[in-house]
Specification:
Elements (H helix, E strand, L loop, with lengths): L27 E2 L22 E4 L2 E4 L9 H8 L4 H4 L2 H6 L3 H6 L1 H8 L7 E3 L7 E5 L6 E3 H12 L6 E4 L5 E7 L3 H10 L32 H12 L17 E3 L14 E8 L2 E8 L2 E2 L3 E3 L2 E8 L3 H15 L10 H8 L1 H9 L13 E2 L12 E4 L5 E6 L5 E2 L1 H14 L3 E4 L5 E7 L10 H5 L7 H4 L1 E3 L14 H14 E2 L6 E4 L13 E9 L5 E9 L11 E8 L3 H13 L2 E2 H7 L1
Parallel strand pairs: 9-10, 21-23, 23-24
Antiparallel strand pairs: 1-13, 2-3, 4-5, 5-8, 6-19, 7-8, 7-18, 10-11, 10-15, 11-14, 12-13, 16-17, 17-20, 19-20, 22-27, 24-25, 25-26
Helix pairs in contact: 6-12, 9-11, 10-11, 15-16
Pfam family, one: NIR_SIR_ferr
InterPro entries: NIR_SIR_4Fe-4S (IPR051329), NiRdtase/SiRdtase_haem-b_fer (IPR005117), Nit/Sulf_reduc_fer-like_dom_sf (IPR036136), NO2/SO3_Rdtase_4Fe4S_dom (IPR006067), NO2/SO3_Rdtase_4Fe4S_sf (IPR045854), NO2/SO3_Rdtase_FeS/sirohaem_BS (IPR006066)
EC number: 1.7.7.1
């Protein structure tokens, strides 16, 4: 077991203007179908031997478990990626030319792989020499000062610099060059941000209720828990080697709303609020994930923890995954594959023995999330639980913003709110703590009237898109501009009377989460009417979020992108009650 420990500082809560807030799984598989994890599996005792050990403060795969490991594992063995941060290796890299970095395998692996532990992703294919930087932004809460700082970073990169709101309530900034990184990291620290351990085989941004602390209907304020999770994962932004050598990436969320804005069914660990014998705590879901070959919804661990055990439980699950997870084929290294292999009861016992008390309570039957709940729309103006205050949700088309946009968002947060912004998993932004006396003026601000509307069209408000091949080397098609263009053209053909969520992803890695959308578009190569290769999309239908969540299924393969508009219009008419514009006009 790890001897690593971390002191938790009190979560820094944004100052509120008034009183503070006190299924059935379905699997989509691209390859062979799988079955739900077995409850009990016969597991050889040797299989439960931890595969990693601590050496000089870092966790290393033992020699006897190195046969058949994937190339990324070999790179981690050659040098622990966290050393670039914890031992200041980034400072030396930043002084080298890219030509020199590319000459040696060690430094080339640094820039293409190990720097992802610092949140830096080299865009070798489309922006050679430039990086995307992913932050840690627990619960999606940020400040105007942090937003201005990020704007100042991307502004210097001109047309190469921009920022995206991600599907994990996070910021990604683009255009970064390596010589600037040490100074950027210092600047992030000065405004209370970090990019540490946000990529590759690490825990991704902890997601929570975007309306935490202000929602009149909330179950629990998720901010203290997501803040503590982030502090634990990064050791208060100093680096935590104990959880930085996982077999693959790992997602966590804390649910605080009946609306399930947090999407618990697609997280590796989801905390579901529940009481037990008069105590407040959480039931646990585990194993939800998306990948190119398999997508699974999270399943119950049959365990409940008190609110005080949120961090020990997270640590225990991560250590079980770190110690026992498969490190061969990267398509089979997510945590659900380990649960499959061990069975849920053996996996649960491995988690239990890593808890401080060496046991886990069984799940509570007093879940607090209401099963029958119509998911609320947070876009537009809504009253807060604090009397006299409201929040306003604004639509950020496919999550893309420029430096000037960020500065203006920061100004609006200061002028109308409390200097705070909230990012959502649908790539939108919420300005909380707006005095009701200012509500008339805020929607008339030019940025909201011209760019980021609080009241977008029905189809636009549910639009999500990954980065696409503008910047991402794995994307097969362009997504963001195409998603907007297709949606605009479809809206001219049909009238839709109820929300329809459309998600775009550029490749099977499904960063755009197409399987949870009403209509999903996954980039692929297709063939046009002449049989020639062209950009296309596989279309998915039927994904749902909320208490009756399930994953969508493949509806139509290989539709050329240039043919998508009439196909989508037909889908909306046939499956979502849309009315063709010509018929609607005739009836009028």
């Amino acid at each position: 077991m790890s001897s690593f420990s971390v002191r938790f500082f009190a979560p820094q809560q944004p100052l509120l203007p008034s009183t503070a807030s006190s299924f059935k799984p379905k699997t989509w598989v691209m390859a062979a179908p799988t079955t739900a994890p077995a409850t009990s599996v016969d597991v050889d005792g040797g299989r439960l031997e931890p595969r990693v050990e601590e050496r000089e403060g870092y966790f290393v795969l033992k020699e006897k478990f190195r046969d058949g490991i994937n190339p990324q594992e070999k790179i981690k063995i050659e040098k622990d990626p966290l050393k670039l941060f914890m031992e200041a290796g980034i400072d030396e890299l930043a002084k080298m030319s890219f030509e020199d970095l590319d000459k040696a395998k060690a430094t080339k692996d640094d820039i293409d792989v190990r720097l992802k532990w610092l949140g830096l992703f080299h865009r070798r294919k489309h922006q050679y020499g430039r990086f995307m930087m992913r932050l840690k932004l627990p619960n999606g809460v940020t400040t105007s000062a942090q937003t201005r700082y990020l704007a100042s970073v991307i502004r210097k990169y001109g047309k190469e610099g921009c920022a995206d709101v991600t599907t994990r309530q996070n910021w990604q900034i683009r255009g970064v060059v390596l010589p600037d990184v040490p100074e950027i990291l210092k600047g992030l620290d000065e405004v209370g941000l970090t990019s540490l351990q946000s990529g590759m085989d690490n825990v991704r941004n902890p997601v929570g209720n975007p309306l935490a602390g202000i929602d009149p209907e909330e179950i629990v304020d998720t901010r203290p828990y997501t803040n503590l999770l982030s502090q634990f994962i990064t050791a208060n932004s100093r680096g935590n080697p104990a959880v930085a050598n996982l077999p693959r990436k790992w997602n966590v969320c804390v649910v605080g709303s009946h609306d399930l804005y947090e999407h618990p069914h697609i997280n590796d660990l989801a905390y579901m609020p529940a009481t037990k014998n008069g105590r407040f705590g959480f039931n646990l879901l585990v194993g939800g994930f998306f990948s190119a070959k398999r997508c699974d919804e999270a399943i119950p661990l049959d365990a409940w923890v008190s609110a005080d055990d949120v961090i020990p439980l997270c640590k225990a699950v991560l250590e079980a995954y770190r110690d026992l997870g498969y490190r061969g084929n990267r398509q089979k290294t997510r945590m659900m594959w380990l649960i499959d292999e061990l069975g849920i009861e053996v996996f649960r016992s491995e988690v239990a023995k890593r808890m401080p008390q060496k046991e886990l309570e069984r799940a509570s039957d007093e879940g607090l999330v209401q099963k029958q709940w119509e998911r609320r729309d947070y876009l537009g103006v809504h009253p807060q639980k604090q009397e006299g205050f409201s929040y306003i949700g604004i639509h950020i088309p496919v999550g893309r913003v420029q430096a000037d946009d960020m500065d203006e968002l920061a100004r609006l947060a200061d002028m109308y709110g409390s200097g705070e912004l909230r990012l959502t998993v649908e790539q939108n932004i919420i300005i909380p703590n707006v005095e009701n006396s200012k509500l008339e003026a805020l929607p008339n601000e030019p940025l909201l009237k011209d760019r980021f509307s609080p009241q977008p069209s029905i189809l636009m408000k549910g639009l999500v898109a990954c980065t696409g091949n503008q910047f991402c080397g794995q994307a097969i098609i362009e997504t963001k501009a195409r998603a907007l263009k297709v949606t605009e053209e479809v809206e001219r053909l049909v009238s839709v009377s109820r929300p329809v969520r459309m998600h775009w992803t550029g490749c099977p890695n499904t960063c755009g989460q197409v399987q949870v959308a009403d209509i999903g578009f996954m980039g692929c190569m297709a063939r046009d009417e002449n049989g020639k290769p062209c950009e296309g999309a596989d279309i998915f239908l039927g994904g749902r979020i909320g208490s009756d969540s399930h994953l969508g299924v493949l509806y139509k393969k290989g539709v050329p992108c240039k043919n998508l508009v009439p196909v989508v219009a037909d889908i909306l008419v046939e499956h979502f009650g849309a009315v063709p514009r010509q018929r609607e006009e005739a009836e009028d």
